[in-house]
Specification:
alpha+beta, paralog of FGE (formylglycine-generating enzyme), four-stranded mixed β-sheet, 9 strands, 22% helix, globular
Amino acid sequence: MARKALLFGLHASCNVTAVRCLCAMLCVFSWAPAPAQTQAKTQAQILSAPPLGAQLQVHGLLWDAHEVSVGQVKRFAQRTGFVSRAEQEDGGFIYEAGWTAKKGWTWRRPFGIVAQDSEPAVHLTFDEAQKICQHEGKRLPRDSEWVAAAYVEQRTQPPAGFIKEKRYPYPNGDSAGESHCLQGCSGSQGTAPSGSLWRGTGHVPVMKTRPGVNGLHDMGGNVWEWVDSGNGDERITRGGSWWYNASRQLADDIATKPRDTRVGYIGFRCVATF
């Protein structure tokens, strides 16, 4: 994956009609917790949040607390009739000493078997991820927004282990130890069936790992995340994944991929303006 210099830019437009924007904002404000309340929420409370997950206020945006899950995309598909490109082509890809097509591997079956609703949704292209976010009045974050949220602590009263306004080397804090990756992390067992992968054990369900900087889950490790930045047809992915070592989670690791890439270790999360 290439490492590139990047020009950062902020984007705060809603890009929906006035009526739809109002509805989206009402939904956001009815669900988004105040910072102090957020820290007290249990995992069960967060998982029972609205269609695209609980949201946390970070750097002037409302962020999905976790990567968009299979259950959330399933609800989107039920409402809209959405069929992903990987489904249309009977499978996405995985890297096995070269890109390998995997028959039947889609966001519904990321490793060839039916996924739990709590698993992160993968095998989705950049444009499909953006479409899912926009359906909820949200969007994919820009790279500068993602970097700020992942590495710079902004909570007024952060919990033990975090300091307000400190810039951390990893999205999980001072180390990548409790994230999910191939090496240099906690070593959690992923959801892929034994023997189905050439390398690694696949992703873990969303919010299984400890929350990191700004209370966000899995900004480092688990699955790469699409961001709305890049040149031409290339789009940046951030945060590393279960397939890579902890070093891929560092801020200076800027990976780019064609926007129509549909693989088993790229997911996404959405943001909303308010």
